[in-house]
Inverse folding.
């Protein structure tokens, strides 16, 4: 599948935004929010900014962005519509949560909106994941690894960014770092599991089943319908050489997980505030860079069954 | 309306494509382009039409495959257009309701006024039957010639899809595949018509008829013909022929 | 939200006009739907006899041709050096003045100095007649490089031919063998026919080195090695003869099998038919042993056995000679198999299947008919095996003979023009060979005078050749000379080379119409481009001093013209598809048709036929002006179509003749004729009554009808010529007999190849080059969705074939370490081209091939300079030489069939070498990018054709 930048930015940024929101909700539920109002303001601000940038970017992908509102109508069947509805719903819910937090509310008053916000975050990111996971023609998406992966990566980037913010405002606590590090581990393991899964996945449709000509022998494309590339190939025929994909996976692994992990630890362990802040920021930045690479690969490595009509042997 | 029509009748209009006789002439592809360029989904935009990487919207595309190896291999021409699936993934995936399946005849269409051009339906269609018009920013696709098949301004005989009307080899047939008594249904039964990627659980309406087995006899006598018996040697023939007399 | 409301009955058109498609030469009927004067839609005309409602890919793309940005817009005069594409626009008066100036001078001095050649032309009845009036013999259309082997092979053997002059009995045949046909001129009818045939369960065998298109749907594919079909046919004949699976009855009735051939080695009449005093061929009565008129009804001739002639010499029946040749062990399946590449068992099986279908599955129609001798038959009995062949046979230097062999096979099976067999389309069959003989002997050509007859025709012996006193060719293309005596269609592929060399003489003006001679229709393309621009060092003048070219589009050839006469597209003019030219008849009845303008012309262009008539009138050519010197056809071509008479009562169109328009075939000109055609959908079709539909060569009622219609001069039966006396006459000349003899350097060649019986020999290029150096055959095929060079400026067609690959057998390629998409050099004895490889299974292991005419010169056709056609596609023509490698004495014959001069495109031998990494990415050879001439339309970057119809409420409610 063609790795469109608008969609990569959309999923990565909105994921991180929901991750930040979710982390804020966790703090509200399991700990007490730091008193610093600026931390709160910036935390929510960052979350909403990331989510909004993401959604805006996704609108860039549309042929008719001005009609984007129409996308809310089909929530009963369409995951994209559901994602839109959930994203839209998350704004007021998160708004109430933010308001209570900033006004210093606590107890049930804070926990209820926090839990509600956490739920909208999970739902929205899960919907995003489901947009892909629901697509049967793309086996590398249509599997159980995709939604957990989206959730974990969102949480990981969100937690790391919020952790970094906490360091900047001097309200960091070691648990934040441990939590971030744990998220990195979980997300990393999920990603490794995903890669392992797609590498060993067999049994998808083949050129033989796509054409129904298997009984005659191995099926090979002789001539495509047109001598230059068409929309289908540009959009769904993107393919990436195995060697290149391996290299990018290594990069994603290093940037996304292996480097952020010690940085997150360092942020939690090391006393000098400035160095800890640096490490926390580094962890967040590296992780986001890694997730961008990961997301690019998520598209680039995905193969669509239409390619079977254009020379692919399996999809 | 959301997802699939609830009040779907049995009628399932679609095409049956005979791979045994398709010569790969592209007539169906070009006439489809021609009819539809000015039809329901007009235009079928072409970008860079006279330069490098020309690209256009085509609702019907003809592929050529080879199956098997060596002299025994088969060359099979394979036209591909929307299969008007009974449970079209392109419809359920659509966030706006632009992509829909008609209740009355099962034709799958795009309501361009609702389409936001998110392209998700093209990802959801396993067969690559969605055609995005970059210039118009909306999704387009085979309309099963909705503007022909019921068109009172056309002669009765012309109320069939353009691609069916034009196919010089009569490799394309149009009809109601929901009606077991229709000609197309009978054809599918008799010839073992099949679904593409059936193992994926899709329920396409269009069916493909498989190429018939070759009749090259596997080296021995074929087609009911007994091997020829030489009657005599080359030299001996002339004596035999002496009394072969016929009058003019 | 409810389901979208759709207008399912949108208005399609304000008006529908019926005319004839010309996206190729199949000439289907089309209905053009117009909205506000623009083309909404073109569809096949259901009532039309040719296509019966279907339309091919090219036909459907007609809209994009009609509005192509490559359309020329105004007459052009060259201002830069020839070949650069630098022009200025001029007015028509000036353009015509220039042409008339050059031509008038030529006509006054030596009309031969005009060479007038036309390509994809379908108005040869007009252009040939015009050349005659002008007085030059140097006229031909593209037939010589196209399929004259097929045409001549048939016309000299059965009085008709495959090609578009006949067709299988699609409805009744049980066994159909197609030889070397990728698409044919009859694109749509063949597809319709194949589909009907397969639906009936009849067997379809395709003999073709490549398994695409028709071959892909064949019940059996015979993937032989190119150039060896003759061997296969001989082997089949041998098997049938051995098993006595021969229709002797048919041979006796309809062929010259029983005719006696004089055996008198060294005599001047050796090998000619023994004749009685009235000139009738003789046969030996099988019962009495007497010699008797072989043409008489009711004779019972012997087919074998020597006869004693009255003068004591011996004679042998044709059948025996033919059988002796075919029974030779060299044609045993085992003997031919290694060369043909087909297993002996397969050859035997096919022979058995042919015999089975022919003799065990006889078709009988309960239709009484009367034969030429007046005998009534109450049934029509047919042998339902049929054949068709095209350029896979004819585009080889052994094609004429292979074609004849195939016709002999048909005769032996008794399957010519019988139910289930091959069928003639009227006006065929014609006498063997048909009239007239070509004009162009020295005394036929006089300054200021018309030529004594038509420049093209059929020679009947050496005395009909067009030779100068010294035996040199009279024609610039050397047609009807010793190099190509039976060149019935001329030899267009030699015109530029010969004119450049001044061999046999220099010319002044090369006038061409609809022929892309500096690119895909020529051999040695790069060389021809140089010849066109080469100048004489002494005078500084171009070697070919003037070039006038009429094209509708900015083709590669336009750049080489000094004067460009822009034509309209086919939707903007009148045309006639005449029975005098290449007919569109079907086997069940004669037909002809017209084109009429369906859209208005928006450029300063004129139909070429109008222009030609105008030039003719300005030159004052006889027939083109009236007694006062005024134009005879002031109304242009439409006027000519209606009023011109070839012979009294016979004109361009056969339908609705006579003052009142109620006679067909013959009749006075009808001023309302075109209107009648328009009313009838643009065509005229006269179904034959059932009793005339078969055995046309011997069917009295049909023959009388044919005479009445002017198809044939006399209602006489056509006797098929297994043994060709015409050929033997040439052979005798080569052996020193007769007044007209070949010069010594041509004797051996004439002696060898003018065998009166069909023969087989290896294609010339294969015989001349070291096959180890050039181990592969290289072919081209017609893509169904493109027509030669025409498709590339068509926005839709070029998306289907904007680029080409060289296809190669996978196993063979892998042995050489070659893989898909490799850049490779294709190297012949003449040169090399570079392109990309694609591996496939369904191709003979010794064969590579590509689609024809996809590559374009950069800048031509108003395509962007970086378009794939110019940068990645490759043209095989560059490696095909128009001359054969030198023979011992250094002489180089044309790369042609020695009998007909047919261009031997498919004799090409090559080897494949992988290109160096640095050579990848661009095809070769490359030439300077052509400048666009003034006036061409802007190329749109986005094409939204049809949007306007939608805005007008075309589709939405
Ligand atoms: N390698 C290889 N070369 C081949 C062949 C092959 O098999 N292999 N086949 C050969 C054969 S059989 C043939 S017939 C030739 C064909 O070769 P050509 O006779 O040259 O045919 P085209 O290239 O189709 O068209 C010639 C010109 O007709 C022009 N034209 C199109 N429509 C019109 C019109 O309405 N009016 C006018 N005035 N001009 C028009 C086009 O612009 C083009 O320049 O190619 C030959 N060349
Ligand atoms: N779509 C389309 N239709 C056309 C044309 C076009 O350009 N496009 N051109 C028109 C013209 S001008 C012509 S002349 C006709 C030509 O009509 P065809 O003769 O059908 O066309 P070609 O492409 O020359 O096909 C030659 C076939 O012979 C095969 N072949 C080559 N060598 C041999 C051999 O030695 N033995 C056998 N058995 N087969 C062999 C090739 O593989 C190929 O399939 O088509 C006409 N129709
Ligand atoms: S028109 Fe018919 S024969 Fe031609 S490609 Fe289409 S389905 Fe095949
Ligand atoms: S083929 Fe594709 S576009 Fe057509 S109905 Fe099925 S899923 Fe939708
Ligand atoms: S592109 Fe249009 S039709 Fe397709 S899913 Fe998006 S909104 Fe629906
Ligand atoms: S049914 Fe109509 S829209 Fe669909 S492929 Fe055929 S011609 Fe095109
Ligand atoms: S075969 Fe096609 S291009 Fe040729 S005349 Fe017929 S419709 Fe036109
Ligand atoms: Mo041709």
């Amino acid at each position: 599948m063609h790795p469109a930048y608008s969609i990569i930015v959309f999923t990565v940024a909105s994921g991180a935004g929901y991750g930040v929101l979710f982390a804020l909700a966790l703090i509200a539920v399991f700990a007490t929010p730091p008193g610093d109002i600026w931390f709160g303001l910036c935390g929510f601000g960052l979350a909403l900014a990331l989510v909004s940038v993401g959604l805006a970017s996704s609108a860039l992908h549309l042929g008719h962005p001005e009609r984007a509102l129409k996308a809310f109508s089909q929530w009963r069947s369409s995951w994209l519509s559901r994602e839109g509805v959930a994203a839209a719903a998350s704004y007021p819910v998160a708004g109430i949560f933010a308001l209570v937090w900033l006004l210093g509310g606590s107890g049930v008053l804070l926990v209820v909106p926090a839990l509600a916000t956490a739920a909208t975050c999970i739902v929205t990111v899960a919907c995003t994941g489901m947009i892909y996971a629901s697509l049967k023609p793309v086996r590398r998406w249509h599997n159980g690894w995709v939604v957990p992966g989206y959730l974990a990566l969102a949480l990981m980037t969100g937690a790391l960014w919020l952790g970094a913010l906490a360091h900047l405002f001097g309200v960091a606590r070691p648990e934040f770092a441990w939590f971030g590090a744990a998220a990195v581990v979980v997300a990393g393991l999920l990603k490794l599991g995903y890669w392992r899964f797609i590498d060993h996945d067999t049994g998808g449709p083949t050129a033989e089943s796509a054409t129904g000509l298997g009984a005659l022998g191995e099926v090979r494309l002789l001539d495509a319908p047109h001598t230059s590339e068409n929309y289908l190939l540009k959009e769904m025929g993107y393919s990436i050489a195995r060697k290149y994909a391996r290299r990018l996976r290594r990069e994603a692994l290093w940037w996304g997980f292996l480097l952020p992990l010690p940085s997150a630890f360092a942020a939690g362990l090391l006393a000098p505030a400035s160095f800890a802040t640096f490490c926390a920021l580094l962890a967040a930045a590296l992780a986001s860079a890694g997730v961008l690479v990961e997301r690019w690969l998520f598209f680039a490595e995905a193969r669509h069954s239409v390619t079977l009509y254009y020379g692919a042997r399996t999809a | 309306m959301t997802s699939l029509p609830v009040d779907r009748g049995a009628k399932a209009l679609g095409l049956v494509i005979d791979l045994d006789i398709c010569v790969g002439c592209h007539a169906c592809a070009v006439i489809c382009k021609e009819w539809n360029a000015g039809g329901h989904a007009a235009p079928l935009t072409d970008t860079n039409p006279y330069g490098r990487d020309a690209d256009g919207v085509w609702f019907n595309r003809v592929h050529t495959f080879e199956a098997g190896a060596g002299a025994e291999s088969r060359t099979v021409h394979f036209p591909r257009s929307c299969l008007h699936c009974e449970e079209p993934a392109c419809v359920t995936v659509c966030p706006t309701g632009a992509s829909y399946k008609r209740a009355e005849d099962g034709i799958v269409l795009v309501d361009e006024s609702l389409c936001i051009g998110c392209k998700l339906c093209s990802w959801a269609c396993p067969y690559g039957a969605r055609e995005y018009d970059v210039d118009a920013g909306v999704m387009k696709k085979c309309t099963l010639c909705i503007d022909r098949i019921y068109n009172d301004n056309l002669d009765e005989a012309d109320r069939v899809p353009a691609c069916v009307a034009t196919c010089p080899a009569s490799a394309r047939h149009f009809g109601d595949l929901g009606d077991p008594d229709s000609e197309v249904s009978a054809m599918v039964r008799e010839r073992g018509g099949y679904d593409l990627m059936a193992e994926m659980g899709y329920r396409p309406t269009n069916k493909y008829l498989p190429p018939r087995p070759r009749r090259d006899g596997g080296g021995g006598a074929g087609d009911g013909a007994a091997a020829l018996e030489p009657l005599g040697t080359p030299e001996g023939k002339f004596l035999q022929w002496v009394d072969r007399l016929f009058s003019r | 939200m409810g389901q979208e409301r759709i207008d399912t009955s949108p208005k399609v058109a304000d008006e529908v006009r019926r005319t004839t498609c010309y996206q190729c030469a199949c000439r289907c009927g089309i209905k053009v739907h117009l909205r506000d004067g623009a083309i909404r839609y073109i569809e096949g005309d259901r009532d039309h006899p040719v296509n019966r409602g279907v339309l091919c890919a090219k036909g459907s793309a007609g809209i994009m041709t009609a509005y192509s940005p490559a359309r020329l817009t105004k007459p052009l005069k060259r201002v830069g050096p020839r070949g650069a594409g630098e022009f200025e626009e001029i007015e028509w008066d000036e353009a015509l003045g220039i042409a008339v100036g050059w031509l008038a001078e030529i006509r006054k001095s030596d009309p031969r100095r005009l060479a007038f050649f036309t390509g994809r032309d379908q108005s040869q009845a007009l252009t040939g007649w015009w050349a005659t009036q002008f007085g030059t013999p140097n006229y031909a259309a593209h037939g010589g490089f196209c399929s004259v082997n097929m045409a001549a092979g048939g016309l000299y053997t059965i009085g008709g031919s495959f090609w578009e002059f006949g067709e299988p009995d699609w409805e009744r045949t049980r066994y159909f063998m197609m030889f070397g046909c990728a698409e044919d001129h009859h694109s749509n009818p063949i597809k319709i026919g194949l589909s009907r045939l397969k639906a009936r369960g009849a067997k379809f065998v395709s003999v073709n080195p490549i398994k695409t298109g028709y071959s892909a749907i064949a019940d059996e594919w015979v993937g032989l090695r190119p150039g060896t079909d003759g061997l296969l046919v001989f082997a089949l004949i041998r098997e049938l003869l051995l098993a006595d699976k021969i229709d002797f009855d048919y041979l006796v009735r309809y062929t010259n099998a029983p005719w006696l051939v004089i055996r008198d080695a060294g005599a001047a009449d050796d090998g000619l038919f023994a004749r009685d005093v009235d000139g009738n061929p003789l046969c030996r009565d099988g019962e009495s042993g007497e010699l008797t008129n072989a043409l008489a009804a009711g004779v019972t001739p012997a087919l074998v056995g020597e006869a004693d002639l009255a003068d004591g010499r011996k004679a042998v029946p044709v059948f025996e000679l033919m059988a002796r040749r075919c029974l030779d062990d060299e044609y045993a399946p085992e003997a031919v198999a290694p060369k043909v590449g087909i297993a002996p068992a397969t050859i035997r099986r096919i022979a058995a299947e042919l015999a089975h279908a022919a003799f065990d599955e006889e078709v009988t129609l309960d239709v009484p008919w009367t034969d030429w001798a007046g005998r009534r038959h109450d049934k029509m009995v047919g042998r339902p095996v049929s054949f068709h062949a095209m350029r896979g046979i004819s585009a080889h230097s052994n094609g004429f003979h292979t074609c004849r062999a195939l016709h002999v096979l048909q005769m032996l099976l008794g399957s010519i023009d019988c139910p289930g067999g091959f069928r003639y389309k009227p006006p065929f069959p014609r006498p063997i060979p048909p009239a007239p003989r070509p004009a162009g002997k020295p005394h036929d050509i006089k300054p200021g005078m018309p030529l004594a007859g038509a420049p093209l025709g059929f020679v009947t012996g050496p005395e009909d050749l067009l030779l100068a006193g010294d035996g040199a060719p009279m024609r610039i293309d050397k047609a009807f000379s010793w190099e190509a005596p039976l060149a019935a269609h001329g030899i267009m592929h030699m015109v530029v080379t010969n004119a450049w060399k001044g061999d046999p003489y220099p010319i002044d003006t090369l006038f061409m119409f609809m022929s892309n001679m500096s690119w895909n229709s020529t051999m040695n393309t790069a060389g021809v481009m140089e010849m066109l621009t080469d100048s004489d060092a002494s005078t500084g003048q171009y070697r070919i001093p003037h070039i006038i070219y009429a094209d509708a589009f900015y083709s590669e050839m336009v750049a080489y013209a000094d004067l460009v006469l822009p034509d309209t597209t086919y939707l903007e003019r009148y045309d006639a598809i005449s029975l005098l030219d290449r007919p569109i008849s079907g086997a069940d009845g004669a037909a002809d048709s017209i084109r009429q303008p369906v859209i208005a012309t928006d450029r300063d262009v004129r139909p070429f036929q109008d222009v030609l008539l105008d030039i003719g009138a300005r030159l004052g050519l006889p027939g083109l002006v009236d007694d006062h010197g005024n134009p005879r056809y002031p109304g242009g071509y439409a006027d000519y179509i209606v009023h011109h008479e070839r012979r009294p009562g016979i004109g361009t169109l056969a339908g609705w003749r006579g003052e009142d328009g109620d006679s067909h075939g013959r009749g006075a000109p009808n001023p309302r004729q075109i209107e009648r055609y328009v009313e009838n959908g643009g065509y005229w079709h006269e179904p034959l009554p059932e009793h005339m539909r078969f055995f046309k060569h011997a069917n009295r009622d049909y023959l009388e009808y044919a005479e009445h219609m002017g198809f044939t001069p006399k209602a006489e039966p056509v006797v098929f010529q297994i043994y060709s006396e015409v050929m033997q006459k040439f052979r005798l000349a080569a052996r020193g007999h007769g007044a007209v003899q070949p010069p010594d350097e041509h004797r051996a060649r004439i002696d060898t190849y003018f065998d009166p019986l069909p023969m087989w020999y290896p294609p010339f290029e294969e015989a001349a080059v070291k096959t180890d150096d050039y181990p592969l055959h290289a072919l081209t095929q017609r893509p169904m969705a493109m027509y030669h060079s025409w498709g590339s400026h068509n926005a839709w067609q070029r998306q289907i074939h904007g680029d080409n690959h060289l296809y190669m057998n996978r196993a063979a390629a892998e042995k050489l370490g070659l893989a898909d998409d490799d850049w490779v050099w294709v190297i012949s004895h003449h040169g090399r081209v570079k392109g990309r490889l694609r591996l496939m299974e369904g191709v003979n292991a010794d064969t590579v091939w590509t689609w024809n005419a996809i590559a374009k010169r950069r800048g031509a056709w108003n395509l962007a300079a970086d378009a794939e056609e110019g940068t990645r596609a490759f043209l095989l023509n560059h490696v095909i030489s128009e001359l054969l490698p030198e023979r011992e004495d250094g002489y180089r014959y044309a790369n042609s069939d020695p009998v007909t001069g047919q261009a031997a495109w498919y004799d090409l031998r090559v080897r494949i070498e992988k290109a160096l990494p640095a050579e990848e990415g661009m095809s070769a050879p490359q030439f300077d990018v052509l400048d666009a001439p003034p006036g061409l339309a802007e190329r749109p970057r986005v094409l939204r054709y049809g949007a306007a119809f939608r805005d007008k409420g075309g589709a939405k409610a």
In short: Residues C 142, 146-147 surround molybdenum atom (ligand 8) (CB under 6 Å).
